[in-house]
Amino acid sequence: MYLILGCGDLGYALAENLKESEEEVQIVERNSDKVRQLENRDFDVFEGDFTSVEDLKETDVEDVEVVMILSPNLQTVEDGIFAINQVKMDLDIDPIVIARATDSILKSEILDRGADEVVVTSEMFADYVHDRFQEFRERIKEKKLREFVQGIDGKLAIVLQDNPDPDSIAGGDGLKTYFEHLGVDSDLVFSGRIGHQQNRALVNTLESEMKRAEDVDFEQDYSAYAMVDVSTYGNCSLPEDISPTIIVDHHAYTSSRAEAEYEDIVNVGATATIVTNYLKYSDIEIDEELATSLTFAILTDTMNFTRGATSLDFSTLEYLLPFISNELLQTLQSPPLSADTMEVIRKAIRSSRIKNGYLISNVGEVKNRDAVAQAADYLLRREGTLTSLVYGIEDEYVYISARTKDVRLHIGKTLEELYGGLGSAGGHPTIGGGRIPLDAFDADQDNMQALRGEMDRAIGRKFWEAFGALKSER
Asked: Which residues, 6 or more positions from 473, have their beta carbon under 8 angstroms from its beta carbon?
């Protein structure tokens, strides 16, 4: 039970909040007009002087766990502390006593008088503004984007990263919903594949009508372009001779990134976090499927808040949770694995080798290159593994996928440095991949054993050497 001593504006607001939380509250107030007003609002009020020991004993003080003295007057606060401490001794009770101070200078003085805690109202306001600053900033950004989008005349292409992941798919779909709310028609455009079971499940959930880049004419079909979850031409299908109109991305700044008229590149855990706040502050109703997909994207990109998560990611997830389907979220997180994928994971486990926390695995030929990435995800969970690298052959290419828990690494840059000269490679700080044509290897492509050996030397051994896990032969 709470006992509030003095019910000005602060005391009344606090009493209202406690009442809404179904907490027991009793108020001590000497002003008879205030007492009547509080009684009319169904508060339990005792009319009396809280600096009087006798009056305090007439309240339900023996049942109270927390006493709050909320007068702004220092002398009244000190007299109230003296009275309640006398009551504590007389009745052998020990509630926590919280007092109010108008500035931090008075805090130590009030503590010396016997309060257990002191709340400085000026500090409370400063903390409130600080805590809400991020919200204010997101609200301002949404307002600026809304004004910018309303100036777009024609159809807009939402260009996702190549081989889009959950964050790119859900972020793109959320942005499409946002644009439609503003009366701007848009298409989701991607290049590569949507092969991972989680990604396919997400596309099916959102019923996204995604267009392949090779099936559109960027210049003829669209008048504006938005890069989502990507900010470089090298990782998306937008032609380099077309400047993006909008970039929304959570990846760190790179010197090679494109430049747009409107840019929102923020160091948060997921692009879905940025997009969700556009929807939130434009008062767009987020349906269950989209809310669940955005939640899934945030959880996936932050690895369940163990990687790169910020306070904005946490508060955004808290906002989304009332709208999601727990059953759908579980389905997205654990979709059925195909027999081919399970076979690749089995081969990855059997062929895996680890040195100093760096694991490599050559899975040979695969039917679905996305299984290589899933094997890299799975092997990162092996005890003692900091970084996993899995590589396998599909058609005319060797596909590489890497994952890391080592915060000292930028695995995407590492792959680019190691294998960019053989093919294409890159990625983000914790996730990377690459593709190397088979003719880059000095081996007979019809001799699988020889080819795998050359792959191990050119990919696996080189990876170990880069981290000092294996001495270089050079």
From this structure: none
Which long-range contacts link 447-452 to residues 24+ away (Cβ below 8 Å)? 448/364, 448/365, 451/393, 452/362, 452/364
Please state, in angstroms and rounded to a whole number, the distance separating the CA atoms of residues 288 and 271: 19
Which SS3 state, helix, strand or coil, does residue 101 take?
Answer: strand
Q: How far apart are CA 364 and CA 359, in angstroms?
A: 16
Contact, 295 vs 320, CB < 8 A? yes
Alpha-carbon distances of 228 from 53, 237, 255, rounded to whole Å: 66, 12, 18
* 329 phi and psi angles, rounded to 5 deg: -60, -40
SS3 211: strand
Report the candidate in 114, 121, 104 with the shortest Cα–Cα distance to residue 14. Answer: 121
CA 298 to chain centre: 5
**Residue 219 burial by CB count (10 A; 0-12/13-18/19+): exposed, middle or buried?**
exposed
Structure tokens of 27?
A: 């108020």
- Beta carbons within 8 Å of 127's beta carbon, 6+ residues apart: none
Overall pTM surpassing 0.90 (yes/no) = no
**Structure tokens that stand for 190 in this block:** 């991607």
> CA–CA distance from 239 to each of 24, 168, 460 (Å)?
64, 19, 33
| CB-based contacts of 399, cutoff 8 Å, min separation 6 | 366, 369, 372, 391, 392, 393, 433, 434, 435
Q: What is the pLDDT of residues 381-427, one digit of tens each?
A: 999 999 999 999 999 999 999 999 988 889 989 999 999 899 988 88
pLDDT digits over 138-168, tens only? Answer: 899 999 999 999 999 999 999 999 989 999 9
Contact 30, 4 (CB under 8 A): no
Is residue 444 within 8 A of residue 455, CB to CB? The reply is: no
Which amino acid, 31? N
How buried is 399 (Cβ within 10 angstroms: 0-12 exposed, 13-18 middle, 19+ buried)? buried
Report angle CA 414, 419, 422 to the nearest 5 degrees.
165
Strand 262-265 to strand 25-29: parallel, antiparallel, or no bridges (unpaired)? unpaired
